[in-house]
Design a protein that fits this description.
elongated, mainly alpha, 172 residues
C-alpha cells in the first residue's frame, strides 16, 4: 500500500510543475491582457490629445494668417491712399505750371470761399430767424429748436468734419 501511495504521489508530483505552470501562464496572460488594454487606452487618449492640439494649432494658424492678410490689406490701402494723394498733388502742380500767380491763388481759394460763404449764409439766416421770432414773441426754446434743427446741425457737422476731421485723420 505504501508502494502504491508513493507511486501515486510520485506520479502526481511529477505533474505538479505542469499544473503550476498552467495557473502561472493563465495569470501571466491575464496580466498581459490587462497591460495591453491599458496601453490601448493610453494610446487612444494620446491620439485624442494630439488631435485636439493639432486642431488648436490649425485654428491659431488660421487666425494668424487671417490677421496677416488683414494687415497686408490695410497696408495696401494706406499705400494706395498715399499714392493717390501724391498723384493729386503732382496733378495740381502740373496744372499750375505756367499760370499767373493770381490764377493759382484764385484756384486755391475756391473751396475756402465756398465754405466761408455757406457759413456766412448760415449765420445770417440764423440771426434773421432769431430776430423774427424775438419780434413776434416766440418762446426761446421753440425759437432755438426751429433755428438750430437737425438738418442745420448735420450741415454744420459735415463742414467741420471736412475741414478738420478729414485733414487730421487723413495724416496716418
Amino acid at each position: 500500500m505504501l508502494t502504491l501511495l508513493s507511486t501515486l504521489i510520485g506520479f502526481l508530483s511529477s505533474g505538479l510543475p505542469k499544473i503550476l505552470d498552467f495557473f502561472q501562464d493563465k495569470s501571466d496572460k491575464k496580466h498581459e491582457l490587462e497591460l495591453a488594454r491599458m496601453q490601448t487606452e493610453r494610446d487612444l487618449k494620446m491620439a485624442e490629445v494630439t488631435a485636439q492640439a493639432q486642431q488648436k494649432t490649425a485654428e491659431i494658424n488660421a487666425v494668424g494668417q487671417q490677421k496677416a492678410e488683414e494687415i497686408k490689406l490695410e497696408q495696401t490701402q494706406v499705400e494706395g491712399f498715399y499714392a493717390e494723394r501724391q498723384s493729386l498733388y503732382q496733378h495740381d502742380i502740373e496744372i499750375g505750371k505756367g499760370a499767373a500767380q493770381w490764377v493759382t491763388n484764385m484756384r486755391a481759394m475756391v473751396r475756402p470761399t465756398i465754405t466761408f460763404g455757406l457759413f456766412a449764409l448760415l449765420v445770417i439766416v440764423d440771426i434773421a430767424g432769431i430776430a423774427y421770432a424775438w419780434a413776434h414773441g416766440a418762446d426761446f426754446k421753440v425759437m432755438m429748436d426751429t433755428v438750430w434743427d437737425d438738418e442745420t446741425q448735420a450741415i454744420w457737422a459735415s463742414i467741420i468734419s471736412f475741414w478738420f476731421g478729414s485733414q487730421a485723420f487723413g495724416k496716418k
